[in-house]
Amino acid sequence: MQTSILKKYCDARLPWYTIYPTVPEFSAAVGAKACEKWLSRLPADDPVSLYLHVPFCRSICWYCGFPTTLTRWDAPILNYLEVLREEIRLVAEQAPQALPVNDVHFGGGTPTLIEPAEFLALMELLRCRFVFGKTATVAVEIDPRTFTVEIAEALGAAGVNRASLGVQSFDPIVQKAINRIQSEAQTAVAVENLRQHGISRVNFDLIFGLPNQTVQSCVQSARTAVAMRPDRLAVFGYAHVPSYMKRQRLIDETALPDNTARAEQAAAVADILVAAGYCQIGLDHFALPDDELALAQKAGRLRRNSLGYSADTCKTVIGLGTSAIGRLGDGYVQNELAAGPYSRHIRAGRLATSKGYRLTDEDRLRAAIIERLMCDLEADVPAICAAHGFDPIAFLDSSERLAMLAEDGIVDIEKGFIRVRPEHRFVMRAVAAAFDAYLDRSPY
Length: 444
What we know:
The protein is of the alpha/beta class. Helix content is 38%, strand content 21%. It has helices at residues 3-9, 32-40, 75-94, 116-129, 149-158, 172-177, 184-196, 215-227, 259-275, 292-299, 339-347, 361-376, 381-388, 393-396, 400-407, 428-433, and strands spanning 48-54, 56-57, 69-70, 100-108, 131-142, 162-168, 201-208, 232-237, 279-281, 285-287, 303-305, 308-310, 316-320, 325-327, 331-335, 353-358, 378-380, 411-414, 417-420.
C-alpha cells in the first residue's frame, strides 16, 4: 500500500464502527428508566443475544483497552456474580415474557476465572430466565495462562460450544513488552482441553502493531497459530491511547511500529492465513470456509456488533455486568463502568444503566451503510436509502470525504454503489467515516 495513502487515511482517531453512533455520543439522558421501557417493548418472539461482562484478570496486560480489574482472590469474583445474578433477574422481569436466546457471549476480563460450579449455576440461571434455542451459540473468552481442565469440563457440561483464546503474539520479546508471557505450549494445551470436552469451535485473537513487533515475528506467530487450526482468527491492530487507558503508559512508545510497518505486518499475516485456507472477513477477521462467519459473508448476511464481526442476526443485544453495552429496539444502553456504582444500583433493585443513546431514523440509515461497508467492502447507498425512506443524493453529493476517497482511488462509485478496492481494505474505516455524521469533518 502506498505510504501516502497510509499517512492520509490511517488515522488512529477513527472509530472501529462496531456500533453506530459510537460510545462518545452516549449520554446520561438515557438511563435506567429508558432502559426499562425499551426492554418492556421488545417483541416477545424475536430472538436476542446476551453479552455478560466479567471484568477480572489475574494479571493486567498493558495493551488491553477493556475495563478490567486485577484480583488475586476469588472473593471479589463471587461478590460480583451475586450482583450479576440479581441483574439477570431484574432484566428478565422487564421483558414481556421469557425471551428466546440465539447467542450468548461471556467477555472480559477472564470469564473462566469463575469457579466451575459457579459457572454451571450461572448458565442454569440464564436457561431458567430465558428460552435457549437448540442451536444457540454459547461463547466464552479464555486466557490460556489460567485455563484448567476443571473449567474446560464445566464449560462443556454448561453447553459452551465456542471459545475465543487470547494469544496476541507468540514472540517472547513482544510478550515481555506488553506484560503477557504466554508460551506456545500453554495455548496448545488449552486448545486440546477444549476440544476434548466437546468445544470444537475455537477462535484466536492476534494483534499487530505491538512494541518491538516486526513483520517476521507477526508471520511466525501466524504460522504457529495456523498449526493449531483454529476455526477463525481476529487480527486486530493495537490502538495506543494512553491518555484514555493509563496502563498503556507502561508501553515504550519508541518501540511501536509506524503506520507503514503496521500495514506491512497486517498484510503479511493476511497472506499467511489466506494461503493456509482461511477466508478474509471484512477488516480484520479470518475464518475457515465452513465456519459461520465465512458462510455468513458468502450469503451476504455478515453483521458487525460491539464484539466485531458476527454471524448472529439478532436485532437485540442485552448487556449484563459492568460496562456492558446493549442494543435494544430504541437505541443503545450501557451499564456503569465501575463495580461499586454498578452493584449499588442492582442491590437497590434498579437497573445499572448509566448512559445510552436514542436512535433517530437517520442514525439507522447511516448505521446500515457503515455496516455494509465494514462487512462487504461495498454498499448500495441508493437501495439502503430507499429502504429507510431517504434521498441518497444528500448522502453522496454532499460528502467531501467520499469524493476525496474516490479521487485517491480508495473507492469506486457507480450510480451510488460504493466499492472499496481490495488493496485498500485496511483503510476501510476511513470509508465508513464518510457516513459518520458525528465525526469531525475537517479534511485529513
